[in-house]
Every structure is written in C-alpha cells, then in structure tokens.
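Entry 14: structure prediction run for DinB-like domain-containing protein. Input pasted below.
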Amino acid sequence: MDIFRLIQDIKTHLKLSFDEADRWFDKDQKTLNYKPSNGGWTTHQILEHIYLTNFYLLILIEKGSKKAMRNYKALDLDAEIKDYSFDKEKFEKVGEYGAFEWIRPEHMEPKGDLNLNQIRNLISQQYHQCLNYLNLMKNGEGLLCKTTMTVNDLGKINAYEYIYFLSLHTQRHITQMLNNESETIKKFKK
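Run finished. Output tokens:
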C-alpha cells in the first residue's frame, strides 16, 4: 500500500468537498432558506448539520490520531503499511445522498443557533484541522488506531478512514443542497 498516495488522495477529496460546501454560503437567501417539499432541511440547516457532524467526528479523529501516535512506539508501522489495503468501495455509499437510512444523533441536528458567517468560519477551521491531523500522521501512523464506526456497518476504521468519512459526509449533503436548489429553481420559475 502506498500510504503517501492514500494521504494525498484524502487531502484532495477534502479540498474538493470543503471547497464545494463553501460555495453554498454565497447563494441567495431564497436558495439558502428554501424548505423542500419533502419536509427536509433548508440549505442553511444542512450547512449547520455539516459543521455539527464534523465537530463530533473531529473529537474522535483527535483521540484516534493521538492514540495512533502513541502506538507508533509500540507497533510495527512498516508491517501495518504492508498489510493495509484501502477498501474505497466500502466507503462510497457514505457519500451518496439517500443510499441508506442514516439515523443521526439529536446533537447533530441543526438548532439555528449559528448564522451563516459563523458556520462558514467553523467549517473552514475544521478543514484545516483535518489537514493538520493528516500532516501529523504523515508517515502512516493513522493506521495504528482503529475506532468503531456504526454508520452503514463500516466497523473498525483507522484515523485516515475517519477523515475520509468526514469528507464523504460533506459530499453526501452537497447532493442534498443541489436537490434543494433544483426544487427552488422549479418552484420560483413558475
């Protein structure tokens, strides 16, 4: 396994996902506040949900990265890298909106407590946190700690896979925002 290629691929995916999410903050108020006919969240609420989910995932990523760095002294990193293969297919459904039922915890539901500028700044900080963790674990150390992920039965995943999951979650909701925007355009075109 080329661990450096994996890290670079995750960085690239993060940049694309976060750049796309950031563009939504520049949409007009009609698009940002449109409540879809299915009763789902507005784009503003989706952006807040992305922030909240990232917040809680980053707590786990921080713990995992610290543990991975501690494990570096006790485990054989070269053997871990040699034996590791990234099962990208296993994760792809996470990035697809509506691909499976996702029951999120209540603390990840938007409350409307934050304005768009606050959310934008916080999401930008979260992007940089992810990059910092990838830079900290730049030699493969992220393989040395696994934590259970119950979403879509992913099971035990390593610190790199947690960061990739976070990026896929953002991608999932970009599709949801596109759906909202499409419905908005149709509704106000009439």
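Notes: The longest helix spans residues 159-189. Will compare against the previous run tomorrow.
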